[in-house]
Amino acid sequence: MKNKNGEKPQAWRFKRYYIYISITVLTLVLPWITVNGNHFFLLSFDKLKLHLAFVQFDMQELYLMPFLLMFMFLGIFGITVLGGRVFCGWICPQTIFRVIYRDMIETKLLGLRSRIKNKQKEPDMSKAKNKAKKVIAVSLWVGLALLASSNFLWFFVPPEDFFSYLSDFSNHWTLFGTVLSITVFLIYDIIFLKEDYCIYVCPYSRIQSVLYDEHTVMALYNIHRGGNIYNSNKEKQFTSQKDIQVQEPHAECTTCESCVTVCPTHIDIRKGLQLECINCLECVDACTTVMGKLGKPSLVTWSSDFEVIEQKGKTHYFRAKVVGYMLVLVGIIFALVFMSSTKENMLLNINKETRLYSTKLLPDGKVRVDNAYEFLLQNTQNEKMKFYFEVVAPKGMEGKIKIAKPSKPFTAVPNIKKKKIVVLRTTEVLVKDDRKDTVIPITIRAFAIGHEKEIVVFRHSTFVFPKTDILKKAK
Q1: Distance (Å, whole) CA 290 – CA 363
Q2: Which of 65, 125, 200, 208 is most buried, judging by how many CB atoms fall within 10 Å of its CB?
Q3: CA 152 to CA 175: how far, in whole Å?
Q4: Residue 52's beta-bridge partner residues?
C-alpha cells in the first residue's frame, strides 16, 4: 500500500522474517559442514575438543573460550548502545520461536488467531474446533522443539555422533535427558510463558536501561506530532482523537490502537520508553500503514530520543561509546586470530625423572651418562601418525647428546595421550667441573614423520652432567 505521496511503507516485519529464516537455516546447516573433519564451532566435552572456524583445538587450548564469550557479550552490549534492544526483536531465539509458533502455526497455518496484526487477542478456547487446532499446534511445536533442542546440542555433540549415541540409550542416557529437558523447557516457554520470559525472566531487559543514551535508536512515538496520550504519571488521558485535539489541536494520532494490538509484548509505545519493548518495529509498520492512508508519515519511528523527543538534531551513530565498543571487538578478533594461528599441532609435556642421571663405564674406557624423562604426547590430528624427537644442544655440544630410547619412531593415534620413557645419552665429556653437577639447557624438537615442517613443537628441558669425581668413580 502506498501513501498519497507515492511512498511505500517500510515493512520491517518482512525484513525480520528474512533474517529469521537466514539465522534458522544457518543454525541448522552449520553443524553438518566440516572441513578436514573440523566444524565451524564445536565444544565437545565428550572428546575434549574445541573446533573454531574449522580448526581443531585441544582442551588445553580453551583459553580461546573467554575471548569468544567476551566478543559475544560485548557485541550484544554494543548493539544495545547503538540500536536498543534490537537483539531481542531480530536475533534472539525466544523471539524467533514465538513468531514461528504464534504467527506461522497458530495464525497462518491453522487460523487459530484471526490475524497477525492482532497479538493481544487470545484464541477463544471454548470452541471445540479451536481446541482441536490447539492440540495440532502444540503437537507441531513439540516436534519443532525436539528439532531445536537437538540442533542446540549439535554444537556440543556433532551430528555424526549424536544419532549413534541416541541409538545407545544405556551408555548415553545423559544425552537423552538433556534433549528431553530442553524440549520440555521450550514447550513451556513458547506455549505457556510466552513474552513473559522477555519481560520478567530475561535479565537483558534490566541491563539495557543502563546502556541506553539519548542517541540510542529505538521505536519511538513522536509526541510533538501525535500528541500526549499519557500524562507524566504514565496514566492514559485520552481515548479518541477529538479528546486529544481539545488540548492539542495539532495532534495527529487517530487513537486507532493499531500500534498497541500488534505489539507482541503487550505495551503501548505511546507511553514512552519501556523495558518491555524489544525493538521488533511492529508498531512502526502498523502506524506507517494507518498514517500512509492519510498521506502522512508514521508517528512511530525507529530513531533516537535526541532526534524525535528532544528534537536537538540528527542522531549521532558513531559516537565515542560506540567507537569504543567497535575498537574493543576488533581487538578481541585480532587476539583470537593471533592465538589460533599460534596453535600447536601436537601436545607434548616433558617431565624429568627424579634420579638426575646414571653412569656406566664402557669397554673403550669412556663413561656413558644417561638422563631419563617421561614424555606425554598427544596427536591432535585426525589420523594416525608416527612421531620422533631430536635434541638441540647448546653451541659447542651439537651432536654430543643423543636419543638412546626410543631407538625408532613410534605411532600415536588421534586424541589419545601416549606416555614414552625417553633416555638421552652422551659418552663425551661435556663439562669439567670438580665441585658440582652441571645443568645443561637443551631443546627437544618433536615432529611427525613426513610432516616435519607443519607438525612440530619445541620444548625446553635440561640435561644434567655429573661432576668430575662421579666420572672418576665410574671408572
Answers
A1: 105
A2: 208
A3: 12
A4: 41, 55
Task: Give, rounded to a whole angstrom, the gap between the first and last alpha carbons of the chain.
Answer: 104
What is d(CA 219, CA 236) in angstroms, rounded to the nearest whole number? 19
Reading the block at residue 108, the C-alpha cell is: 497462518
Average pLDDT estimate for 400-407: 93
Q: Are residues 222 and 87 in the same domain?
A: yes
Residues 95 and 217 in one domain: yes
Q: Are residues 176 and 312 in the same domain?
A: yes
The conformation of residue 250, written as its DSSP 8-state character, comes to T
pLDDT the model gives residue 394 = 92
How many C-alpha atoms does 206 have within 13 Å on its Cβ side?
A: 5
Give the whole-angstrom CA distance, residue 469 versus residue 231.
98
Question: Maximum Cα–Cα distance for the chain, whole Å?
Answer: 118
In the chain, the number of structural domains is 2
Tens digit of pLDDT for each residue in 307-324? Answer: 999 999 999 998 999 999
Task: Provide the residue range defining the domain that includes 358.
Answer: 346-474
Grade residue 338 by pLDDT with cuts at 50, 70 and 90.
confident
Q: What is the DSSP string of 308-328?
A: HTS--SS--SS-HHHHHHHHH
Helix (H) or strand (E) holding 49: strand 49-52
Q: Write the single-letter amino acid at 205.
A: S
Q: 320: which 3 cell numbers?
A: 565515542
Q: What is the DSSP string of 55-105?
A: EEEEGGGTTHHHHHHHHHHHHHHHHHHHHSTHHHHHT-HHHHHHIIIIIII
pLDDT score at 1 = 46
C-alpha 47: how far from chain center = 19
Residue 238 CB contacts under 8 Å (≥ 6 apart), including other chains? 227, 229, 244, 247, 255
The answer on 181 and 140 residing in a single domain is yes
The verdict on 334 and 364 lying in the same domain is no
| Residue 57 belongs to a domain | no
